[in-house]
Automatic annotation (TrEMBL):
Belongs to the SHMT family. Pathway: Amino-acid biosynthesis; glycine biosynthesis; glycine from L-serine: step 1/1; One-carbon metabolism; tetrahydrofolate interconversion. Its cofactor is pyridoxal 5'-phosphate. It catalyses: (6R)-5,10-methylene-5,6,7,8-tetrahydrofolate + glycine + H2O = (6S)-5,6,7,8-tetrahydrofolate + L-serine. It comes from Streptomyces bullii. Gene3D superfamilies: Aspartate Aminotransferase, domain 1, Type I PLP-dependent aspartate aminotransferase-like (Major domain). Pfam families: SHMT. Keywords: Amino-acid biosynthesis, Cytoplasm, One-carbon metabolism, Pyridoxal phosphate, Transferase. One of its GO terms (molecular function) is glycine hydroxymethyltransferase activity. This is Serine hydroxymethyltransferase. Homodimer.
Length: 416
């Protein structure tokens, strides 16, 4: 029972270096966050040792009396948080939750409608070489390239033409809120199931800052590690128990074996946090921070440098920077920000003229910095650093010093 640093100094060094990276740079990848220490603790607990195939009270292994308690707490809390009648907290990841949900609602070969990957959709919503694209007949819908908003008229037209089994609402890169009532209307009109993947904006929903898809959708999936701020993992929710048996058996034994009870315990902790006032206030700062970024990156000097923001702003925790008029491509812009200590990811803009590995855009998110304690004035400062870094000439050293000052002002995981 030697500690990590003694038993395996090589792995310990990588973990230490990653902690130092997280502490000393500014994390602005929109899908990332910093889990609270209590979540890390639950996730690093002895629950990792336990086999518990099945569900609380109905396990295929003995000795599940304590993991049953933790899993039931997670289920009850997440149902309460999102107003759902049904919850499954076992999916190992967002992609696993999506796979289980889709196979519960449809059969291979059925038609599904999902937002095109290049327009902000996720791999599991129908990308060609993902299970969803390989096993289902995918009809992609798109955003309007003028407004940057989901083209609901196209969605309705495609739904009427193709009569899909499932319509998928949800995104990985989109700066606005979806109209769930309108999706529901279209789904009802063509007799389709509506599945909402709220992985990105679940934290905003929990805080009441974004419409809740649960009352509208047949099934809702999410990750637990993005805006929701918990451990890496997935969940499935539904407004009724109509699909409970199908969903449960799709997760186990359909796609998974033993659940990760240590992660499920950590999910339970994060759902407790997500119900708190402090969490709501953090989500408010998250959206406010993204709006401050959007404002700064649409100011006249940013526009002169060829920088713009898709849809002109944001209602959520991220912005999409449009670099089609800039001399920088997405890769170069990502590298520049990395050089000054800000981590973001390059991202295709709709109808991107550049290849997917290069792109003409950036996705920049605020959840991790809000968790770190950033206030409006800190977001204004980081927005200004980004705007300066994306200009044709920039002073890397000076910008890096400003980044370091912000990191020092809001220490991350002190004492870890
Ligand atoms: N769904 C959406 C909308 C996502 O953005 C993501 C992750 O980026 C996922 C699902 C998949 O989550 P995971 O990476 O945990 O499989």
């Amino acid at each position: 029972n030697q500690p990590l640093h003694e038993l395996d100094p090589e792995v310990a060094a990588a973990v230490d270096a990653e902690l130092e990276r997280q502490q000393s740079t500014l994390e602005m990848i929109a899908s990332e966050n910093f889990a609270p220490v209590a979540v890390l603790e639950a996730q690093g607990s002895v629950l990792t040792n336990k086999y518990a195939e099945g569900y609380p009270g109905r396990r295929y292994y003995g000795g599940c009396e304590h993991v049953d308690v933790a899993e039931q707490i997670a289920i009850d809390r997440v149902k309460e948080l999102f107003g759902a009648e049904y919850a499954n907290v076992q999916p190992h990841s967002g992609a696993s939750a999506n796979q289980a949900a889709l196979f519960a609602l449809a059969q291979p070969g059925d038609t599904i409608l999902g937002l095109d990957l290049a327009h902000g959709g996720h791999l599991t919503h129908g990308m060609k070489i993902n299970f969803s694209g390989k096993q289902f007949n995918v009809v992609p819908y798109h955003v309007d390239t003028e407004t940057g908003l989901v083209d609901m008229a196209e969605l309705e037209r495609l739904a009427k033409e193709h009569r899909p089994k499932v319509i998928i609402a949800g995104w990985s890169a989109y700066p606005r809120q979806l109209d769930f009532a309108e999706y529901r209307r279209v789904a009802d009109e063509v007799g389709a199931y509506l599945w909402v993947d709220m992985a990105h904006f679940a934290g905003l929903v929990a805080a009441g800052l974004h419409p809740n898809p649960v009352p509208y959708a047949d099934v809702v999936t999410s990750t637990t590690h993005k805006t929701l701020g918990g451990p890496r993992g997935g969940i499935i929710l539904a407004r009724s128990t109509d699909f409970a048996r199908k969903l449960n058996s799709s997760v186990f034994p359909g796609f998974q074996g033993g659940p990760l009870e240590h992660v499920i315990a950590a999910k339970a902790v994060s759902f407790k946090v997500a119900a708190s006032e402090e969490f709501k206030e953090r989500q408010r700062r998250t959206v406010e921070g993204a709006q401050i970024l959007a404002e700064r990156l649409t100011a006249s000097d940013a526009r002169e440098a060829g920088v713009n923001v898709l849809s002109g702003g944001t209602d959520v925790h991220l912005i999409l920077v449009d670099l089609r008029q800039s001399e920088l491509d997405g890769q170069q812009a990502e590298d520049r920000l990395h050089e000054v200590g800000i981590t973001v990811n390059r991202n295709a803009v709709p109808n991107d003229p550049r290849p997917p590995m290069v792109t003409s855009g950036l996705r920049i998110g605020t959840p991790a910095l809000a968790t770190r304690g950033f206030q409006a004035e800190d977001f204004a400062e980081v927005a200004d650093v980004i705007a300066e870094a994306l200009k044709p000439s920039y002073d890397a050293e000076a910008l890096k010093a400003r980044v370091t000052a912000l990191a020092d002002k809001h220490p991350l995981y002190p004492g870890l």
